[in-house]
Amino acid sequence: MTESEAIEELKYDCNELGKAIPCDTSWGGSFENAYRMAIQALEKQIPKKPIYIANLGCTALWLCPVCERRIIRSDLVYCHQCGQKLDWSDEHEID
Ligand SMILES: [Zn+2]
């Protein structure tokens, strides 16, 4: 199962199970929060391309695509601030 498939499964389950749980109770709120957090955590496991900002000579300046934190090191696997997994698959195309 991929992360995307797991997200779809969780969304479906949340929707189906949620029908039986009153959302205006603390139980219902916890249920929705738990699913939302699980889905967000999975989404961060799907690599996203950093946003290219500028060439700094020997390196380049990028932004995290989720939280827009500045990233200098292109070997960073996860954003230090939000935990988003980063996709550097075509970084070598930058001149
Ligand atoms: Zn981030």
Fold topology:
Blueprint (H helix, E strand, L loop, with lengths): L2 H16 L7 H20 L5 E5 L4 E4 L6 E2 L24
Helix content: 25-40%
Give unreliable regions as ranges: none
Oligomer: single chain
* CA(first)-CA(last) distance: 37 Å
> In sequence order, what are the helices and strands, one letter per element?
HHEEE
Provide the gyration radius in Å. Answer: 18 Å
Strand content: 5-15%
Task: Please give the number of β-strands.
Answer: 3
Which geometry do the CA atoms define? elongated
Helix-and-strand structural type: alpha+beta
Average of per-residue pLDDT values: 90
Largest sheet: 3 strands, antiparallel
Ligand identities: zinc ion
Q: What is the number of helices?
A: 2
Strand order of the largest sheet: 1-2-3
Number of domains: 2
3D structure, described in words:
By secondary structure, this protein is of the alpha+beta class. It has two domains: 3-45; 47-89, no CATH class. Helices cover 38% and strands 12% of the residues. It is built from two helices and three strands. It has a three-stranded antiparallel β-sheet, with no helix packed on it. A hairpin with a 4-residue loop joins strand 1 and strand 2. Helix 1 (3-18) runs antiparallel to helix 2 (26-45). The protein is elongated and about 60 Å long. It starts with a helix and ends in a 24-residue tail after the last strand. 7% of the residues are buried. It binds zinc ion (ZN). The site of zinc ion has 8 residues, from loops.
